[in-house]
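Technical annex, item 7. During the second reporting period the consortium partners agreed on a shared format for inverse folding records so that results from different sites could be compared directly. Each record opens with the tokenized structure and is followed by the designed sequence. A conforming record, contributed by the partner at site C, is shown below for reference.
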């Protein structure tokens, strides 16, 4: 049962990470943009914020389920 849950969480994590915007590609635009972007003041909004939070929650669930399976 827990192995199945871990598999589902793993697949969802992979999909969510692939859906996130590539922040590394934005690094080349720092020279042309304002200081807000340089210091990371730009906030995530809407769907991007939801995906980031869901990724963190699923990551935590992955660690917890993995530890439970390891300790059994």
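Designed sequence (site C submission):
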């Amino acid at each position: 049962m827990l192995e199945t849950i871990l598999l589902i969480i793993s697949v969802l994590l992979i999909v969510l990470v692939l859906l996130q915007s590539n922040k590394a590609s934005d690094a080349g635009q720092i020279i042309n943009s304002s200081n807000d972007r340089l210091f990371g003041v730009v906030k995530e909004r809407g769907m991007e914020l939801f995906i980031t939070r869901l990724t963190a929650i699923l990551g935590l669930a992955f660690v917890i389920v993995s530890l439970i399976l390891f300790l059994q």
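The longest helix spans residues 47-71. Residues 36 and 70 are 44 Å apart (CA to CA). All partners now use this format for quarterly exchanges.
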